[in-house]
Amino acid sequence: MRISRSRSVLLAGAVAVTLSATALPAAFAAPSSTAVISEVYGGGGNSGATLTRDFIELANAGSAAYDLSGFSVQYLPGAPSAGSLWQVSALTGSVAPGGRYLVAQAAGTGGTVALPAPDATGTVAMSAASGTVALVSGTTPLTCKTAADCATDTRIVDLVGYGSAVVREGGGPATGASATASVTRAASLSDTDDNAADLSAAAPTPVNAAGETSGGTDPGDPGNPTEPGTVRVHDIQGTTRVSPSDGQAVTGVPGIVTAVRTTGSKGFWIQDTAPDSDPRTGEGVFVYTGSTAPAVAVGDSVLVSGTVDEYYPSATTQSITEITSPRTTVLSSGNALPAPVVLDAAAVPAAYVPSAGGASIDALPLEPSTYALDLYESLEGTRVQIADTRVTGATTAYDEIWVTVEPKQNPTRRGGTLYSSYTDQNTGRIKVMSLDTTRPFPVGNVGDVLSGTTTGVIDYASFGGYNLQATELGTLTDNHLRREVTRKQKGGELAVATYNVENLDALDEQAKFDTLAEGVAVNLSSPDIVSLEEIQDDNGAVSDGTVGSEATLKRFTDAIVAAGGPRYAWRYVAPQDGQDGGEPGGNIRNVFLFNPQRVSFVDRAGGDATTAVTAVPTRKGVTLSVSPGRIDPASEAWSDSRKPLVGEFRFHGKPVFVIGNHFASKGGDQPLHGRYQEPSRSSETKRVQQAAEVNTFVKSLLAADKSARVVTLGDLNDFAFSPTMSALTAGKALKPLITTLPANEQYSYVYEGNSQTLDHILTSPGIRRFDYDVVHINAEFADQASDHDPQIVRVKVDGRH
Fold first, then answer.
1. Alpha-carbon distances, residue 94 vs 66, 119, 324, 396 (angstroms)
2. Average pLDDT of 159-167?
3. 378 and 282 Cβ atoms separated by less than 8 Å
4. Are 314 and 4 in contact (CB under 8 A)?
């Protein structure tokens, strides 16, 4: 089993993992992106071993040959004594890009299988259980005997400690080495300077520079067979999500090459043309070749030998069954491909995924006729076909588009698929990507149709889960989705809007300002008050102590005027540097824009980053202690998070209180498609705390004046059916307006093909007449200024409230 720390290039939209410096005993040189120690085996010739010699294998993850002239590999016992010395084996030649380099070490009396012809030979009798191997620039023996000392030796290119080795990279050595197991780096050749994370135990698979494995290249040798072995693809896939062959070597697995990936993490898919009768056991599998371009073509009949591995894109995702370190024999070319499995509404079950009470579903027997995710898992690596599918998630910057194979499943008014509860998942959603790099990817919006047939193989990624890697892509039919324009407020209506403007700062391009400004001036018809989320300080991600946003807001309001809108004024409370979360250095905050020709802001001095605003009862109602102000900024609920902005406005002489919010993100929650079911929503705890703080403050206003007009709005990062919303509305202090819309219009955000609501406007009981609208201008479109749609409420403010 591998949990990846480096293959984000394979996963569209994936986020690179940064390792904490505290994970290392000292500052080793930067992790190598070229030459690495890929495998260490000290059990050669031992009792029970198959191979007769120890070996060290090097690999080159780079794009150019790595010269080893004058280099050496050196070995130190796992628990060195005062008299222990590093033993040196000199190297010559080079490692080809994507290639291997084999160093044979001492032979024993056991074993029956010879190594392939080594590229260098040493005489070191390595321990099977524990030791340290270093790739060194030079042949002078190292002298360091602790991890900290070795970390300062700049001659060390890479270092692997295994077993109980004292000298190792990271928090622990690689484990599991024995007379029958080596420690092997992941096929991606990831080097994070953490041996325990980068290498794991597996059957030894020495490969030399010529690509030969144990026993040489004789056509009859198991390493390059001409006849199928005893293991078939369906045996590898098994009846659960984890292969029964995980970690085991397989020889001569037959199949037809159905698709080839030549970018990112490279490889190809094979599918058996002689399937078994069990619908749970898949007939396709991915053959992972790492940085090496596959030397096969679609239609080739092949025999693949290698090691079966369950690759986990992250700790919470499901895995991909792969054959790694492959040796491939092409038997013939131009063969017909297996007929694709048709995915449509009749094929996909109504239930989404089995429950394991929050635990892993890895070991549960697949039930592809009952659960959609079990069906997709049973088809992993298999050719499938979809036809005339409606687009439910617009084309992304990573050339992905979401479609549904169940067109009648929870449709929205504008063509999306509504996500309406934790228990009612949309089973027909699937992400489509393309393996054809010669054709531009279609740019589609929600409601368009991917017409005709799209054929490819089912794959899995950390973002989005199961996806179709298309070899033949349908054509896009434009449904002519248009951006909405809401009506203009009437004279007696106060229009209040919320808009997440996605990390806007003064260093952004003018085009972003102009598009967002048009959204305010035209699509929102120039609201009287606009509560903005994600306004950053004036130099964005630059971390230099800047916290003001004056230049950002000047550019934005100028752009609104240029788009035909009014000259807005603004109010905000600048955060303390680095205390409000968001992009590091950005000092994200909430901001009020308001049109002074229509509404006035009541300024009360004293509001700052650390002062809490309070409700002040008066004979004429309630006022604020400071305006603008923040709700209890010292509360743990707001730790490293945006604090709500509260402002007191007057419209036609009547007070209106507005609370702008941006609750904690959903980052850290387990994915809907992940290995843990039901998924944990760990981020929810903080949002519930934040909602309770806002609810308490609103109740303090209502306690002073039960008729107080309060508008609470913003990016709450949670759903209308969530515990967050329950905490926010407790005691009927606030009414969520999203639930007043028809069900198929209750969304403002699209994620992984689900139309859902993270943004909200809520009103107090004192607001009895209102007109509410979600204005769809971003989330459903490939070309978007923000990933959120704005919302607006028009409130009738008069003597009767």
1. 5, 9, 23, 41
2. 94
3. yes
4. yes
pLDDT reading at 83 higher than 60: yes
Which of 777, 335, 307 minimizes the C-alpha distance to 522? 777
The answer to whether 184 and 191 have CB atoms below 8 angstroms apart is: no
d(CA 698, CA 687): 16
Q: Are 135 and 156 in contact (CB under 8 A)?
A: yes
DSSP, residue by residue, 518-534:
HIIIIIS---SEEEEEE
Apex 241 CA angle, 240 and 242, nearest 5: 90
pTM over 0.85: no
Q: 3-class SS at 541?
A: coil
Q: What DSSP designation does 417 have?
A: B
The rounded distance, in Å, linking the Cα atoms of 461 and 466 is 7
Residues 282, 234 contacting (CB under 8 angstroms) = yes
Q: Which two tokens stand for residue 239?
A: 């009846």
Higher-scoring residue by pLDDT: 108, 323: 323
703: helix, strand or coil: helix
Residue type present at position 76: L
Alpha carbon distance 413, 339 (integer Å): 36
Over residues 377-396, the mean pLDDT reads: 98
Q: How far is CA 405 from CA 313, 388, 394, 451, 488, in A?
A: 25, 8, 16, 12, 39
Torsion of CA 603, 604, 605, 606, to 10 degrees: -130
Q: Phi first, then psi: what are they for 225, rounded to 5°?
A: -70, 160
In what helix (H) or strand (E) does residue 324 lie, and over which residues does it extend?
strand 320-332
Q: What is the dihedral of CA 718, 720, 726, 727, to 10 degrees?
A: 30
407: which 2 tokens?
Answer: 């067109």
Q: Report d(CA 644, CA 636) in Å as an integer.
A: 14
Is pLDDT of 82 > 80?
no
**What angle is formed at CA 229 by the lines to CA 225 and CA 232, rounded to 5 degrees?**
130
Radius of gyration of the chain (CA): 31
Q: How far apart are CA 522 and CA 777, in angstroms?
A: 11
717's tokens:
């990062």
Sheet holding 131-136, edge to edge: 87-90, 72-77, 131-136, 156-162
Backbone angles phi, psi at 740, to 5 degrees: -85, -10
β-strands 710-715, 654-662 pairing:
parallel
In the block, tokens 């986020």 appear at 15
In whole angstroms, give the CA distance from residue 558 to residue 255. Answer: 63
Helices (H), 424-568: 510-518, 550-562
